[in-house]
Amino acid sequence: HRSEVNSAQFSPDGTRIVSASSDRTVRVWSAVTGACELTLKGHSNTATSAQFSPDGQKIVSASGDKTVRVWSAVGGECE
């Protein structure tokens, strides 16, 4: 991230981490290697939080732009 990280959470299976940042992105990281696997872009203000769905297939993020977005945790598309 290029700015503050506002939240971070493990995926249900513990293999990935999702983080939300003031740089307006949500990122998915490998919990094993630390490599960034996905960068989710679309918020026009600070991403304040992000979390995996219970099955690990989706990510929900909230932002200072007054939106909530649902993303594919596999391909990163905003749904």
Keywords:
7 strands, globular, 79 residues, four-stranded antiparallel beta sheet, three-stranded antiparallel beta sheet, mainly beta
Characterise this structure.
By secondary structure, the chain is mainly beta. Helices cover 0% and strands 52% of the residues. The protein contains no helices and seven strands. The strands form two sheets. A four-stranded antiparallel β-sheet has the order 1-2-3-4, with no helix packed on it. It is globular and about 30 Å long. The protein starts with a strand and ends in a 7-residue tail after the last strand.
Short description:
By secondary structure, the protein is mainly beta.
Largest sheet, in brief, is: 4 strands, antiparallel
The tally of beta strands, per DSSP, is 7
Number of helices: 0
The overall average pLDDT, rounded, is: 97
Beta-strand percent range: over 45%
Largest sheet: spatial strand order: 1-2-3-4
Instruction: Name the structural class.
Output: mainly beta
Beginning-to-end CA distance, first to last residue: 23 Å
> Which H/E pattern describes the elements?
EEEEEEE
Tell me roughly what share of residues is in helical segments.
under 10%
Please give the radius of gyration in angstroms: 11 Å
Name the poorly predicted regions.
none
**Mass-distribution shape:** globular
